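Work Package 3 (structural annotation) set out to generate three-dimensional models for the target panel prioritized at the project kickoff. During this period the team completed the workflow that converts sequence records into discrete structure tokens, so that structures can be stored uniformly alongside our sequence database. As a representative example, we reproduce one entry of 104 residues exactly as it appears in the project archive.
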Amino acid sequence: PEQNAAKTSSCGSKASPKTPQAIWFEWYVKTPKLWEVCESRQTKSTYKQITNYMKLFLPNGFALDPTSETYSDDVMCIGQEAETNLYKFFEDHGVTRKHGSSVL
């Protein structure tokens, strides 16, 4: 039961919808990794889909080195770039919802 509680509590908060950048950061930086500890298949799937969708808005691609001292900062910068491009796309297409799974 204790292990179960730890797994569910590390699946992300349901208090309020997260920005795509926050989801990006959590997917790449959070330890233990979300996909290893989260029992909610829906949460894992949503986070994975949002993260992969954001990759479409990185025209030059990206490369991350998990051993780098600046890994967290790199993830944050790349996430900001993807989110900025995503929001620009939304603005151009009249989309107003920008948080949580509504970005899909």
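Residues 1-9 have pLDDT under 50 and may be disordered.
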